[in-house]
Design brief:
Largest sheet: 5 strands, mixed
Number of strands: 12
Strand content: 25-35%
Distance between the termini: 37 Å
Shape: globular
Strand order of the largest sheet: 6-9-10-11-12
Radius of gyration: 20 Å
Number of helices: 8
Structural class: alpha+beta
Length: about 260
């Protein structure tokens, strides 16, 4: 937690970490891939972020790559397997579902999209915190899809099980909407505790130019919070954007 580095025991060796480096490991692991620039904040300036990542990379805990995001070369960070194991070995355990952590680069065609999910979280988390809420964990679409497939192929699934009934059962259990017989999964789910102590969720979707009108309509009917790169054109099938906010691939706006 301190600004000076301390010895932190991992599963196989001892590392030297300070508070900002520990937070960077947890953030990157929770969101799979995070642009280096998104780790910069009022509390952690750019020079500190660069020094932290260099130190983490030298210890084999993170890997840095340059990839295209919104058609711009972007420096991104992912955990290595050793980084993930270190975070997991110090994870708190309580009666709440555990935060999932991930290591390694995702599929190239998913990378540009996934690299913006932390920015999506930041935009919504600011609103939640302003309302006195406490974020408990985040769930990625990758995790929801995996859980759904696991449920569909469970060992105790009855031989006469109906796919529609399965879909409805999974949706109810995970508080997910079914729209026109289609299970809608958000890009990001934030689980949080309200100021009054209730546990609630907020589902978010990052809209890209590849969305059709029907896809966008389904996400809107599902009640997801919709974001896109500020000033980006409308999804396929919609009229082109004219005027308004200039396009900025580094900023998300709520639809």
């Amino acid at each position: 937690r301190t600004s000076t580095r301390e010895a932190v025991r991992g599963p196989d060796r001892i590392y030297q970490l300070r508070g900002s480096e520990a937070r960077a490991l947890a953030t990157v692991g929770a969101f799979r891939v995070v642009p280096e620039s998104d780790l910069v904040s009022h509390e952690v300036p750019r020079d500190t972020v660069k020094a932290d990542l260099r130190h983490l990379a030298n210890q084999g805990l993170v890997a840095l790559r340059t990839v295209p995001v919104n058609r711009e070369p972007t420096r991104v960070v992912v955990l290595t397997p050793a980084g993930r194991e270190l975070v997991l070995s110090h994870q708190r355990t309580d009666d709440r579902p555990a935060q999932m952590y991930h290591a390694g680069l995702v599929k190239p065609r998913e990378l540009a999209h996934d690299a913006q999910i932390y920015r999506l979280y930041q935009a919504e988390a600011r609103q939640l915190e302003a309302q006195g809420a406490e974020v408990l964990r985040v769930v990625l679409d990758y995790e929801l899809k995996r859980d759904y497939q696991t449920f569909l192929h469970r060992a105790d699934r009855p031989d006469d099980a109906d796919s529609e009934a399965d879909r409805e059962a999974f949706a109810r259990a995970h508080q997910l909407p079914v729209i026109d017989s289609h299970l809608e999964l958000p890009d990001l789910r934030i689980e949080y505790r309200t100021a009054e102590g209730r546990i609630e969720t907020r589902d978010l979707e990052l809209v890209t130019e590849h969305y059709s009108r029907s896809q966008l309509a389904g996400k809107a009917r599902a009640g997801f919070g919709l974001y896109r790169a500020a000033g980006a054109g409308r999804p396929r099938g919609g009229a082109a954007r004219t005027g308004g906010t200039p396009f900025d691939p580094h900023v998300l706006e709520r639809l």
